[in-house]
Here is the input.
Amino acid sequence: MEESACKYCVITLPYKRIYVLWVPNTQNNKYNFEKEIND
Here is the structure.
């Protein structure tokens, strides 16, 4: 699992916004951020 873990996650929104965050635990952090952004 750690092998496929990315260090930087870039999420592009329809509002032309790019979010770059440090994700040590991609599974947890990415899900939390994706939910926040989707909301």
About this structure: The beta strands are 8-12, 18-22. The chain has one domain: 8-38.
